[in-house]
């Protein structure tokens, strides 16, 4: 009896296969007791190691399938002796997003085709398709706005978003988690007003990206200064001459933008003496300050165009009544020549208009009365 495979192998002879060589026996009653060569099955250990694959996330579908087969008896129990009978879908791992995707088959997904092995002890070594996260660069450019100063509140908010991987990492993948107030720039006065948020004000919502490298490009709300026209009209005063000292000071202020540029925004920096006009005598006395005597205190205005309107202290002349009384002389006739000259001066305003203020410009001969004979002789 000869055999290789598991099974029973018997010798094929029968009782007819014997001849009695002993003549003393007329008959030999032969009973054949059957037995055989029996080859019994054995067991084998098989390790099935699922295939693995690692891919960086790229938004594409990746897959891995198959397995490695290791037999503890590689000469007798080979890969083809173990048939995969599971679902095809269980033998493929597929994924797009970051994560691990395993094949679902197990030891029950195989059938032993080799009858020489009564049992196949299968060990499944798990591995998987692993899609790993990647990084992305994002540029956040804060919105800007430029407005001319108008005393109103101006605001700007928002930002532009640029991704180095715009197909896979989009604006909605980066959530703003900062304070709302930090995402708005507000200003009234001239200057630059920036939003306060920074790279820590954002949260990555896309797990396919392990890191988001954020670059903040700063910009701002800029309120720019404007110009204003100002008219400075010097105060005037008219006084009749009275011999006293008179003064006038101050000015009227007129702004082309009275709501935003007021008197207090323009500081007088000239000499105090230049801001006062003083006079006693008849005439016009002006304040000496000019447009350079002022300083703009309001930074919201880049230039103040000042126009000076001149006016003055004017002391006007008055009238006076003067009585001139010619001198007289009475003499008894003596044949001699007699003369009289001069006059008395009486002013209705003796403090301000005195004798010296009235000059005699007539002929000298007219200021002398001369006579010899009896009679009256007047100055002419």
Question: Any overview of this molecule?
Answer:
It is built from no helices and 36 strands. The radius of gyration is 64 Å and the shape is rod-shaped. The model has no long low-confidence stretch (mean pLDDT 96). With 380 residues, the chain is mainly β. The protein has a 3-stranded mixed beta sheet, with no helix packed on it.
Question: Which descriptors apply to this entry?
Answer:
380 residues, mainly beta, rod-shaped, 36 strands
The backbone outline, from C-alpha atoms, is rod-shaped
- The class by helix and strand makeup works out as mainly beta
Biggest sheet layout: 3 strands, mixed
Task: Work out the strand percent.
Answer: over 45%
Strand order of the largest sheet: 6-3-11
**Helix content range:** under 10%
Q: Count the helices. How many? A: 0
Detail the topology: elements first, then pairings.
Layout: E1 7-10, E2 36-39, E3 42-50, E4 53-56, E5 62-65, E6 67-71, E7 82-84, E8 92-95, E9 99-102, E10 110-112, E11 117-125, E12 128-132, E13 134-142, E14 145-148, E15 154-157, E16 159-163, E17 174-176, E18 184-187, E19 191-194, E20 202-204, E21 209-217, E22 220-224, E23 226-234, E24 237-240, E25 246-249, E26 251-255, E27 266-268, E28 276-279, E29 283-286, E30 294-296, E31 301-309, E32 312-316, E33 322-326, E34 338-341, E35 343-347, E36 368-371
Parallel strand pairs: 3-11, 4-12, 13-21, 14-22, 23-31, 24-32
Antiparallel strand pairs: 1-2, 3-6, 5-8, 7-10, 9-12, 13-16, 15-18, 17-20, 19-22, 23-26, 25-28, 27-30, 29-32, 33-35, 34-36
């Amino acid at each position: 009896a000869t055999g290789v495979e598991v099974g029973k192998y018997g010798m094929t002879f029968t009782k007819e296969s014997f001849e009695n060589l002993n003549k003393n026996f007329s008959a030999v009653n032969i009973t054949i007791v059957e037995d055989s060569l029996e080859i019994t099955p054995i067991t084998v250990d098989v390790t099935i190691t699922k295939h693995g694959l690692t891919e960086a996330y790229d938004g594409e579908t990746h897959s891995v399938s198959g397995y490695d087969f290791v037999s503890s008896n590689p000469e007798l129990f080979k890969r083809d002796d173990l048939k995969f009978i599971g679902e095809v879908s269980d033998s493929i791992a597929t994924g797009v997003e970051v994560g691990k995707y395993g094949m679902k088959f197990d030891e029950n997904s195989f059938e032993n085709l080799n009858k020489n092995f009564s049992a196949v002890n299968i060990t499944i070594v798990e591995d998987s398709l692993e899609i790993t996260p990647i990084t992305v660069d994002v540029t956040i450019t804060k919105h800007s706005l430029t407005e001319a100063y108008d005393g109103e509140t101006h605001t700007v908010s928002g930002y532009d978003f640029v991704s180095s991987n715009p197909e896979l990492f989009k604006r909605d993948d980066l959530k703003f988690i900062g304070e709302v107030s930090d995402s708005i720039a507000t200003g009234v006065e001239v200057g630059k007003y920036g939003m306060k948020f920074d790279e820590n004000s954002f949260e990555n919502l896309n797990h396919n990206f392990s890191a988001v490298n954020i670059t903040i490009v700063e910009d701002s709300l800029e309120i720019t200064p404007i110009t204003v026209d100002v008219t400075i009209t010097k105060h005037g005063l008219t006084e009749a001459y009275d011999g006293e000292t008179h003064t006038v000071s101050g000015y009227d202020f007129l702004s082309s933008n009275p709501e935003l540029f007021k008197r207090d925004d323009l500081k007088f920096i000239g000499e105090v003496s230049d801001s006062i006009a003083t006079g006693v005598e008849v005439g016009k006395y002006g304040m000496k300050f000019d447009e350079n005597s002022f300083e703009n205190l309001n930074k919201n205005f880049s230039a103040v165009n000042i126009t000076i309107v001149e006016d003055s202290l004017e002391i006007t002349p008055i009238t006076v009544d003067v009585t001139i009384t010619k001198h007289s002389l009475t003499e008894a006739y003596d044949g001699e020549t007699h003369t009289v000259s001069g006059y008395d001066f009486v002013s209705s305003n003796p403090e301000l208009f005195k004798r010296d203020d009235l000059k005699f410009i007539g002929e000298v001969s007219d200021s002398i009365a001369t006579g010899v004979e009896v009679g009256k002789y007047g100055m002419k």
